[in-house]
C-alpha cells in the first residue's frame, strides 16, 4: 500500500499537468519543449545541451493479450549531452496510476523505459495514458518536464 501511495504521489503532478496543459508552442530554446508530429519533444538544459524524448500510446502487444504496455523513450541527445538524466514512467487511467517504473539518475543517452499492467479480463473498456517525467542536469543548471501520450481506450479491467 505504501508503494502505491508513493507512486500516486509521484504521478499526481503529472496527471494534474495533463488536465491543465496548454498547447502553446512559444517556448524558449533554453528551457525547451517543442513537439514533432510523431510526439517527439525536445528539452534543453542550456543552449544546445539537451535530449529528445516521447511517450508512446499504451496498447496490447498482440490481439487478446491481457497485458497493457506503455513506453517512454529518450530518442537521442545533443553531441554534448547533459551530465545526468532521470526518466520515470507511469501507466495511468483517468483516476490513478496502475503501473510505475523509475530509471533513476543515469547518464543521458538513448534509452527506453517500459512498464506493463496485467488485465483481469478483456471485457470492460478503460482509458489509459502513458505519463513520463524527464529531468536533466548540466553543470548545475536543471530542467524537467512531464509529458504524456494520447488517451487510449482499451479492453482491460
Explain what the structure shows.
This protein is mainly beta. It is built from one helix and eleven strands; from the N terminus they run H-E-E-E-E-E-E-E-E-E-E-E. It has one helix at about 1-20, and strands at about 35, 40-45, 50-55, 60, 65-75, 85-90, 95-105, 110-120, 125-140, 140-150, 150-155. Strands 1, 2, 3, 4, 5 and 8 form a six-stranded antiparallel sheet that branches. Strands 6, 7, 9, 10 and 11 form a five-stranded antiparallel sheet that branches. The longest helix is centred in the N-terminal third of the chain and has 19 residues, at about 1-20. The protein is elongated.
| Cα end-to-end separation | 20 Å
Runs with pLDDT <50, length 5+? 1-32
| Beta-strand fraction estimate | over 45%
The ordered H/E elements are HEEEEEEEEEEE
Please identify the structural class as seen in this structure: mainly beta
Describe the main β-sheet briefly.
6 strands, antiparallel
Rg, Å, rounded: 16 Å
- Write down the overall geometry: elongated
Mean pLDDT: 83
Helix content: 10-25%
The count of DSSP E runs of length 2 or more, i.e. the number of strands, is: 11
Number of helices: 1
Short précis:
This protein has one helix and eleven strands. By secondary structure, the chain is mostly beta strands.
Topology overview:
Elements: H1 2-20, E1 34-35, E2 41-46, E3 49-55, E4 59-60, E5 67-77, E6 84-92, E7 97-106, E8 111-118, E9 125-138, E10 141-148, E11 152-155
Antiparallel strand pairs: 1-2, 2-3, 3-5, 4-5, 5-8, 6-7, 6-9, 9-10, 9-11
Amino acid at each position: 500500500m505504501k508503494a502505491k501511495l508513493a507512486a500516486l504521489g509521484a504521478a499526481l503532478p503529472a496527471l494534474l499537468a495533463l488536465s491543465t496543459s496548454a498547447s502553446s508552442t512559444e517556448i524558449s530554446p533554453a528551457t525547451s519543449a517543442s513537439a514533432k508530429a510523431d510526439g517527439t519533444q525536445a528539452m534543453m538544459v542550456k543552449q544546445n545541451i539537451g535530449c529528445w524524448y516521447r511517450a508512446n500510446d499504451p496498447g496490447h502487444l498482440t490481439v487478446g493479450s491481457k497485458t497493457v504496455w506503455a513506453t517512454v523513450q529518450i530518442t537521442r541527445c545533443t553531441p554534448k549531452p547533459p551530465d545526468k538524466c532521470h526518466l520515470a514512467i507511469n501507466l495511468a487511467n483517468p483516476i490513478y496510476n496502475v503501473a510505475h517504473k523509475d530509471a533513476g539518475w543515469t547518464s543521458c543517452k538513448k534509452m527506453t523505459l517500459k512498464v506493463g499492467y496485467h488485465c483481469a479480463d478483456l471485457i470492460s473498456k478503460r482509458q489509459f495514458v502513458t505519463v513520463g517525467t524527464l529531468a536533466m542536469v548540466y553543470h548545475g543548471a536543471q530542467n524537467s518536464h512531464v509529458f504524456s501520450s494520447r488517451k487510449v481506450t482499451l479492453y482491460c479491467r
